[in-house]
Amino acid sequence: MLGLFGRFLAMDAIDKKILAELQRDGRQSITELAERVQLSLSPCHRRVRALEASGVIEGYHAVINAKKAGLGFEALLFVTISRSDSSTFATVEQQLADIPEVVQAQRLFGEPDYLVKVVTRSLEDYQRLFDERLTGIPGVERLRSTLVMRNVVSDRPLPV
Amino acid sequence: MLGLFGRFLAMDAIDKKILAELQRDGRQSITELAERVQLSLSPCHRRVRALEASGVIEGYHAVINAKKAGLGFEALLFVTISRSDSSTFATVEQQLADIPEVVQAQRLFGEPDYLVKVVTRSLEDYQRLFDERLTGIPGVERLRSTLVMRNVVSDRPLPV
DNA sequence: GCTGAAAGACGGACGTC
DNA sequence: GACGTCCGTCTTTCAGC
């Protein structure tokens, strides 16, 4: 256990630069990364592996432009449930997780109970999804849809 | 123009598999990807480059575990502004964008006007940020902070 | 969509401080 | 204990077909 904690605590300025760089470009080579963080190849490589192994780096993902991939509609959904018991929470969460168009869902403290992000091809597809699946979830008291007008700050790198 | 649109429309089942794969693991080699999508190396490579060039793939990012990177506190902020004029919007958006701890901000249709995600080291840091920078933004009528209790669905791949 | 060849990246081992 | 250099192997990338 101490070893694991040691790893996290041992994160120095170079590790932070590595994290910032890999958040900016997750597919750059170790060679390129090493130059940018002013380190030679093999220690840079070791640090990246250590950050991956310790779980600080959870993974690498391609970011897709939803519109260009044919998914032109994005909505946020505020969900309020009727009763705060554990089976209601469990049902709602399971049902949400089973919908592929639900790309993000968070349970919140306070009102609303959930914040859900939904992506579909079009408004029509969203309406269908809303009527056929979302309104049917048992235990939901209120659903409020909100459209995103503009991304002011979109998924900025964490300030490590 | 037709050429560009042609590219997007020409996205077939293999392209969708490629997008799904690269969303799952953005750092896998072209060799590995080619095997997974049942394609030989060079056409697979060409498709990935085309998807990048057309902007369907916007980039690749490392995903960092905020807690393990020392950023243990995450809050959502609902922002309502006092007057819907363009200079108020512009000011609020500029001020939000200037705060590194603001990792996501979206302007919405309806209430609230903005949904903002903030990440800090601790509750104390958040309080300081809230008092010293967030409450000071001119044109803001109401700020409501909500804590995330649990990520039910976290940044799932788009259903391409 | 395949093949081949050059350039480059990966991922060890080993020596230095 | 962490950095740096070297080197064999694999991957990428760009031809031509």
Shape of chain A: elongated
The ordered H/E elements of chain A are HHHHEEHEEHE
The neighbouring-strand order within the major sheet of chain A is: 3-4-2-5
Number of domains of chain A: 2
CATH architecture name of the largest domain in chain A: 2-Layer Sandwich
Labels describing this entry:
4-stranded antiparallel sheet, 160 residues, Arc Repressor Mutant, subunit A, 6 helices, disordered N terminus, alpha+beta, homodimer, Alpha-Beta Plaits, elongated, DNA-binding
How is this structure best described in words?
The structure is a homodimer of 160-residue chains. The first copy, chain A, has helices spanning 2-9, 13-24, 30-36, 41-53, 86-97, 123-134; strands spanning 57-64, 73-81, 102-108, 114-120, 140-153. Chain A is of the alpha+beta class. Chain A folds into 2 domains: 3-53, Winged helix-like DNA-binding domain superfamily/Winged helix DNA-binding domain (Arc Repressor Mutant, subunit A), CATH 1.10.10.10; 73-147, Lrp/AsnC effector binding domain/regulation of amino acid metabolism (RAM) domain (Alpha-Beta Plaits, 2-Layer Sandwich). The first copy, chain A, has a 4-stranded antiparallel β-sheet. In chain A, α3 (30-36) crosses α4 (41-53). The radius of gyration of chain A is 21 Å and the shape is elongated. Residues 1-7 of chain A have low confidence and may be disordered. Chains A and B meet through α2, β1, α5, β3 and β4 of A and α2, β1, α5, β3 and β4 of B. The first copy, chain A, binds a DNA duplex (17 and 17 nucleotides) through residues 29-32, 39-43, 45-46, 49.
